[in-house]
Amino acid sequence: MSILINKDTRVITQGITGKTGQFHTRMCRDYANGQNCFVAGVNPKKAGEDFEGIPIYASVKEAAAQTGATVSVIYVPPAGAAAAIWEAVEAELDLAICITEGIPIKDMLEVRNKMKQREAAGGKKTLLLGPNCPGTITPEEIKIGIMPGHIHKPGRVGVVSRSGTLTYEAVAQLSELGIGQSSAVGIGGDPINGLKHIDVMRLFNEDPDTDAVIMIGEIGGPDEADAARWCKEHMKKPVVGFIAGVTAPAGKRMG
């Protein structure tokens, strides 16, 4: 078992016709069960075409209806990425994973508020991972994002991190020691994002195939402290925490 994604997950790539989207869709498709998992792409201007056999649709809603996909990964450039997130929400997907870095804060504020309003009105809740994140992987089942698949090893330790690079470092060291991972999740370092450390810790806490968790954070913001307080009260499994950084230079925004 795993959290968020597994070998049965079906994925849409938003931004599949761009250079970044094509490269990482290819890498993800070629990892483990990716041939079965990556079933659609979206680009309104290229609907009806395909990318190396993956059909391209005009909208996320159409792609989901035609393929049964429940997850999207977003490589859309910053100016259009928030709109791409909202399109995934309106299509009622289970999870949207936004890799894009540099989305304007105003755009993310607007889409986050719309997501909250939709949920408050009784609409389906779509989980958001990112933006500015490496994605998530269930080793030897599926990877969605930009992480190097070869460093991961299946096992029973969960990993969650704000930093993509530190995620890779932790995973690589675990694998070298023969310690496999149930899932590794990069939540991203942007000030306005979706899933927080505490949300992922809750998922790992309830996952019967995760025995322990490594939580990696960075200085700046209260999220890691909030998760630590929650873990102290509720976590049933061992947790190892690491915060990168010592001080934030005056006037410099971290993350």
TrEMBL record:
One GO CC term, this protein: succinate-CoA ligase complex (ADP-forming)
Family matches, as InterPro entries: Citrt_syn/SCS-alpha_CS (IPR033847), CoA-bd (IPR003781), CoA_lig_alpha (IPR005810), NAD(P)-bd_dom_sf (IPR036291), SUCC_ACL_C (IPR005811), Succinyl-CoA_synth-like (IPR016102)
Pfam families: CoA_binding, Ligase_CoA
Domain CoA-binding: 4-103
Keywords: Ligase, Nucleotide-binding, Tricarboxylic acid cycle
GO terms of molecular function: nucleotide binding; succinate-CoA ligase (ADP-forming) activity; succinate-CoA ligase (GDP-forming) activity
PROSITE patterns: SUCCINYL_COA_LIG_1 (PS01216)
Protein's GO biological process: tricarboxylic acid cycle
Family label: Belongs to the succinate/malate CoA ligase alpha subunit family.
PANTHER family for the chain: SUCCINATE--COA LIGASE [ADP_GDP-FORMING] SUBUNIT ALPHA, MITOCHONDRIAL (PTHR11117:SF2), SUCCINYL-COA LIGASE SUBUNIT ALPHA (PTHR11117)
Listed name of the protein: Succinyl-CoA synthetase (ADP-forming) alpha subunit
